[in-house]
Amino acid sequence: ELGSSPTFLYDLVDVTRQAAQQLVSDYYLSIRQAFQSHALPELLTAGGVLVYDLLPELDSLLSSHSLFLLGRWLENARAMATSDREAEQYELNARNQVTLWGPSGNILDYANKQLGGLVLDYYSVRWSLFVSVLVESLNSGRPFHQDQFNQAVLQVERGFIYNKKHYPAVPAGDTMEISKKLFLKYYPSALRRSLAGPA
């Protein structure tokens, strides 16, 4: 009944987004536990669900509402410019603000946002690299080095800032259907985990 209400749809995206973010945290804990236990199959499963299913679903949800679009954020930044050169700089600044906050990740994720396009092309790529590095560490027997990972992921982050990819400023998809799909897919297992308590 409320599916035609813009206020309801905004709240639906916002609440579902927050629930999905909690699931991201849960999968991170599963990934960490699997890595510490040297359980490669469990690491691959949790990492795979996170990178190839949950984050794309979250991005799809965000992309279904105009107020959760990276393209709109970038378009608004460009609209403030008085020249093409200035528009390029403003877009670069807008990308930097929601990611690195400086040339070297000075205050990394300080103003991070969950926006359609940003989740898939920035956060998902970072998570994918993280899981890949952990898998390689288990396969090779070499320890995980945070400093080395930080340097590798910084290149991914900079790549996003400078990629000049165009992101849509118009939503796509049915917010109600995407939210329902996310709920039906993830709620049963999330409920089982909460009832089971901490591992």
TrEMBL record:
Gene: Naglu
Protein name, UniProt field: ANAG acetylglucosaminidase
Domain Alpha-N-acetylglucosaminidase C-terminal intervals: 2-185
Domain of life, per lineage: Eukaryota
Pfam families listed in its UniProt record: NAGLU_C
